[in-house]
Design brief:
four-stranded mixed β-sheet, alpha/beta, 11 helices, Rossmann fold, single chain, five-stranded parallel β-sheet, 33% helix, 358 residues
Amino acid sequence: MDIFDGSLVSESLFEGSQNASCIQPTPQVQIEPAASTSRTERSSSLSFSDQALSIIPLVSLTNDPFEGRMIQFLHIPKTAGTNIDNLVKVLAQNGNFSFMEFYDECLAGNIISITQDCTSGLQNLKRQLGETDWAVNPDVKVVLGHMPLPEGHYKNTSISFFSLVRDPVDRLISLTNFLYQRNFLQVDQLEDYMLRQEADNLQTRMLAGESYMSGKCREKTLAKAIENIQNMFAFAAPIEDVEVVMAIIASHFGVPQIAYAKMQVTGIKIVPDDHKQLVEKLSKRNAYDIRLVAFVRDYWANWKANHIVSVGDSAKNDSRYLVLSHHLYFDEHKVKYMSLDDIRQTKNMGLVDFSQIF
């Protein structure tokens, strides 16, 4: 049973203030409960991990893209960023360096998400640290967090930024399903969240900078995001190449052989990704994000041509692989190695609810 009935509830535009939207608001889409989603009970801690392990490739680079500077990962929600976070945490344990993590979520009613006027983890970072000390601390190698590009005193030349982007429609549907899985959204709230409550063009806003999180998203917002990527970032990449990005980071810290399990996989899905009416409305509301992602795809192709010498298979029978799996969450990110044979034995394993580990 399709959760959408294919008709408009109302042809009227959304009521209330719309001055922060990049485009005119769109008519609503009625959402109905699916006949079946999952037997797993939804809860605020419900999280799934893929038990199967994948081996990231070996990447040979022309030079270190981070140039020895502190690294800051600008984690746009639902862009495979948890895999980057876990990699950094295990590499830190393995290499005895420090990292900082800031995930001060924004609250919109009873929904946890990044919305208009909210800079998420950046506010947490500012509350805990001086405006310059964190950027020059020699013990800290990486900063992680859901936050837009810092501005003002935080725009320090000793920092090398990077980020991942995703097709905005896919990202929003994935995020909505994730929030439904976590019981932050109910069926009757899905439409309002996707088409009105979630910040429009979030990826463009975050990469343009913290001052662009509120107000209208305009051509200059997109231009600023592109300018920042070109001038301030080590790179930006589409999530389809998340394993290449992981390989670049692993190589930077001298541990190129990594096996990982995909984390924060959405196991309960209620919103389909192929509903024509919904896709059209989300595309209109996030038109700048669509253009940003198109730019990043071209930019990343050129970046790889200029910086990557080769991408190869790292699977070797005599190698030991640093492992990132759901066990990290109860092992406190302790370093663990596995052989190739052990990794291959995980091939047919399915999803696991790793929130039950706690």
